[in-house]
Design a protein that fits this description.
Layout: E1 5-7, E2 16-18, H1 23-40, H2 45-53, H3 61-66, E3 75-76, H4 94-105, E4 113-116, H5 123-137, E5 143-147, H6 150-160, E6 169-171, E7 192-193, E8 196-197, H7 202-205, E9 210-214, H8 219-223, H9 228-242, E10 257-260, H10 268-278, E11 294-299, H11 313-316, H12 319-324, H13 327-330, E12 347-349, E13 355-356, E14 360-362, E15 365-366, H14 371-381, E16 387-388, E17 410-414, E18 420-421, E19 428-429, H15 431-447, E20 455-459, H16 462-472, E21 487-490, E22 499-505, H17 514-520, H18 528-535, E23 538-546, H19 548-551, H20 555-566, H21 588-603, H22 610-613, H23 615-628, H24 634-640, E24 646-648
Parallel strand pairs: 4-11, 4-14, 5-9, 5-10, 6-9, 10-11, 15-16, 17-23, 20-21, 20-22, 22-23
Antiparallel strand pairs: 1-2, 3-13, 7-8, 12-24, 18-19
Helix pairs in contact: 1-9, 4-5, 5-6, 14-21, 15-16, 21-23
InterPro entries: DNA2/NAM7-like (IPR045055), DNA2/NAM7-like_C (IPR041679), DNA2/NAM7_AAA_11 (IPR041677), P-loop_NTPase (IPR027417), SF1_C_Upf1 (IPR047187)
Domain DNA2/NAM7 helicase helicase: 93-162
Domain DNA2/NAM7 helicase-like C-terminal: 360-548
Length: 649
């Protein structure tokens, strides 16, 4: 029998733990485990059916994670009680709390738990709180937390370090990452040797409660042979070598949970590396009294997906997006597609039971954007379910002469100046649009009290980004110094970020090239997810510059133009476009804004400052009035049930 050894070059760059006892048995078990993992990793129905036709292993956890069925869930027969209140983050809202409670109790079955988080709803906050609750209130002692990018993983580590010591939290980096790329605040939670990042020694690694890494660097743990499968076989084989009289099975697996933030931006292949770490061995029993690792993903499939060279959906679609379309999620009575607008938690009555425990949570409260900015994305992309929670600002920006019509901080600036292409096959740019963007930014700085650093100018075309930087930063304007602090970049660079004011340059004005743009995944016309990202970055002001003739070719942009037109949010008239009779359906947030404006008008002429004092009350009253029109009857049903119990969903 060989003693488990620690292999590597240098200090231990390619660490591996091996047990040579019962080599043939271990190799056979490993092959069986790998076969089940590889067989289930396909992305089409044929692969799923083929997996089901073969003789299933003892444990089908990986099939449940990649191809969950309704039968993998758990039926709810009793009304749930209010979730526990012992939160690490006291600012957790109800929907986030309900998500944390469901994962901690694991009452939804053995299948992925999806946290659907639109922009500004606190997905990362929910993941962090869930991690802390799993470690402190359940039997799970070791959690793996991943994100598809290094900055996103750094953000998770920065938030978790508020609650965990360097002995409890590890930010795992690959040796290829430079130390100056890592925030200084979390370097104490990283392991370094000889000036490079490394995986810690085995004994030290096994003590960490939480390991945070990127989906790519999760493979370091697989190479080090510290997956649940490897650790299980090492322990059982070592025990058998010393005690041949009987079979030993570990009481628990090392990794009890995998949490993935920004999951909609990771390809399925990216996700598989992390899944292989927590996947139980095929010999691990599947029973009611045997704990299985849980898999939680937070993301938003309506924003930008994984960045891949291929546009084929089989490769460019995330596991999060694919699972969201499975019937266990999309057809559930509480899914977002079946939800109705409300600013109160839904009420579940006994009449709705039995039903499957929802293996998902829908975050609805937006803490980023002004209601006028949020109203169209909520209605168009999220079934009118988002509720603005950010305080309505009362800064000079809100009273800027830029805003037209109802004075909401949303503005469309028509621009039909020709777009052009750089020589030698370069990208598309539009000089007239760049000058308009410069003038708008200059007005914001000089007349609206907005700092340069609080302005973002974005375009989906790289060549236009170069022109924008040249025009905005020229020394011919702004005291001959240029506006160098204005943040100018490609649209994709701002996913997950926010800014006080956003100026979007559509750029495209030649209609004949729109179809080609769509085929190549360029621009924001005909690109639903790019449009959503662009419209949801702004906090207090949104300006869109584009050609209405081109934008009308996209039904989503056409409806956004109609929203601007009916509320007068246009620099000049759009009535010639023929939109005055089209798309007049108004979302709940737009109705609330209209009701608020009516209340403000009714309060005009009172004592000085009365309107400002009543701002919050008017918004609340306007929202309540708008929601009354969408009342789905839950509250009335609860009241009419008499003795029938009711609980918050």
């Amino acid at each position: 029998m060989a003693v488990p050894t620690y292999h590597g070059t240098g200090p231990h760059s390619t660490q591996a733990y091996s047990a040579a006892s019962s080599t043939q048995q271990t190799s056979s078990n490993q092959s069986s485990h790998n076969a089940s993992l590889n067989g289930a990793s396909g992305t089409n129905g044929a692969v799923e059916e083929s997996v089901g036709d073969t003789k299933p292993p003892c444990n089908d956890w990986i099939r449940r994670m990649l191809f969950p069925r309704e039968s993998d869930g758990q039926v709810q027969t009793e009304l749930r009680k209010l979730p526990f209140q012992g939160m690490f983050d006291r600012l957790i809202n109800y929907e986030q709390l309900q998500s944390v409670n469901s994962v901690s109790k694991q009452n939804y079955g053995v299948m992925p738990f999806i946290i659907s988080g639109p922009p500004g709803t606190g997905k990362t906050k929910t993941i962090v709180e869930t991690t802390m609750q799993l470690v402190h209130t359940t039997d799970i002692a070791h959690v793996l937390v991943v994100a598809p990018s290094e900055p996103a993983a750094d953000t998770l580590a920065l938030r978790l370090k508020k609650y965990l010591t360097p002995q409890q939290l590890l930010r795992l980096n690959g040796p290829w990452r430079a130390d100056n790329e890592v925030p200084a605040e979390i370097l104490s939670h990283c392991h370094m040797e000889r000036g490079m990042f490394y995986i810690p020694p085995f004994a030290q690694l096994m003590k960490y409660n939480v390991v945070v890494t990127s989906t790519r660097d999760a493979s370091i743990l697989a190479d080090a042979r510290v997956t649940n499968n490897d650790l299980y076989h090492i322990e059982t084989n070592m025990h058998s070598a010393f005690h041949s009289e009987g079979h030993h099975r570990p009481e628990t697996l090392h990794w009890g949970a995998l949490l993935m933030d920004e999951a909609a931006q990771a390809t399925e292949l990216d996700t598989l590396a992390a899944l292989s770490i927590v996947c139980p061995p095929s010999a691990w029993p599947m029973g009611d009294n045997v704990a299985q690792p849980c898999f939680i993903m937070a993301g938003d499939q309506h924003q930008l997906g994984p960045r891949t060279a291929s546009l084929h959906p089989e490769y460019s679609r995330s596991l999060f997006a694919r699972l969201a379309e499975r019937t266990a999620y999309s057809d559930h009575p509480l899914s977002r597609s079946r939800a109705r607008p409300t600013n109160r938690p839904l009420v579940m009555t006994a009449r709705m039971l039995p039903m499957l425990y929802p293996p998902f949570a829908n975050l609805t409260r937006n803490y980023r954007s002004h209601p006028a900015i949020l109203t169209f994305p909520s209605c168009e992309f999220y079934n009118d379910t988002l509720i603005p929670e950010a305080p309505v600002p009362t800064t000079p920006l809100q009273h800027s002469p830029l805003w037209k019509g109802r004075g909401w901080p949303v503005l469309f600036v028509p621009n039909s100046g020709p777009d052009d292409i750089e020589r030698d096959g370069g990208g598309w740019y539009n000089m007239s649009e760049a000058k308009v963007a410069r003038d708008v930014a200059l007005h914001l700085v000089m007349n609206s009290g907005v700092a340069e650093r609080d302005i973002v100018i974005m375009s989906p075309f790289a060549a236009q980004v170069k022109r924008l930087r040249a025009v905005v930063r020229t020394t011919r304007y702004w005291n001959r110094s240029g506006m160098w602090d204005v943040n100018i970049g490609p649209l994709e660079a701002f996913q997950g970020l926010e800014s006080r004011v956003v100026i979007l340059c559509v750029t495209r004005t030649k209609e004949k090239f729109v179809d080609l743009d769509v085929q190549r995944g360029l621009g924001v016309v005909g690109q639903r997810r790019q449009m959503n990202v662009a419209l949801t970055r702004a906090k207090e002001g949104l300006i869109v510059i584009g050609d209405p003739k081109v934008m009308k070719m996209d039904p989503h942009w056409r409806r956004w133009l109609a929203f601007c037109q009916r509320n007068g949010l246009v620099q000049e008239s759009l009535w010639s476009l023929g939109l005055q009779r089209e798309y007049q359906d108004v979302g709940v947030l737009e109705r609330a804004l209209l009701a608020k404006d009516e209340l403000r008008n009714n309060h005009s002429g009172r004592v000085l400052g009365a309107a400002a004092m009543l701002e919050d009350e008017m918004w609340t009253a306007g929202l309540e009035a708008a929601l009354d029109e969408y009342d789905d009857g839950y509250h009335e049903e609860a009241e009419s049930d008499g003795d029938d119990e009711a609980t918050l969903v």
